[in-house]
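re: the backbone from monday

yeah here it is again, tokenized this time
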């Protein structure tokens, strides 16, 4: 599942600005950080449990393209998505 601020705000019947404010008050973190964590978790799950290509996973989780996912993975974990998959998913 891919999360977008605008969609979350809409289903909550709030403006994006108000949703962002309420989310931070309720959960103590920004909605942007929460969305990035969900996307990271979903990318890891797809790498672990599917044979989808890296570019397919990037699109599916809302990160964009393969190069963006790769840069993001290296920044988060110090390894590429392919290395994560090949390592048996041990970080």
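seq for it, each position gets an aa:
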């Amino acid at each position: 599942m891919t999360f977008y601020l605008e969609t979350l705000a809409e289903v909550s019947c709030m403006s994006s600005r108000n949703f962002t404010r309420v989310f931070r008050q309720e959960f103590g973190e920004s909605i942007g950080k929460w969305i990035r964590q969900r996307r990271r978790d979903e990318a890891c799950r797809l790498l672990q449990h599917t044979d989808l290509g890296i570019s397919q996973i990037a699109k599916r989780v809302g990160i964009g393209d393969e190069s963006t996912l790769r840069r993001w993975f290296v920044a988060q974990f110090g390894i590429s998505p392919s290395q994560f998959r090949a390592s048996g998913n041990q970080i």
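Residues 5-86 form a domain with the Arc Repressor Mutant, subunit A fold (CATH 1.10.10.60). The chain is about 70% helix and 0% strand.
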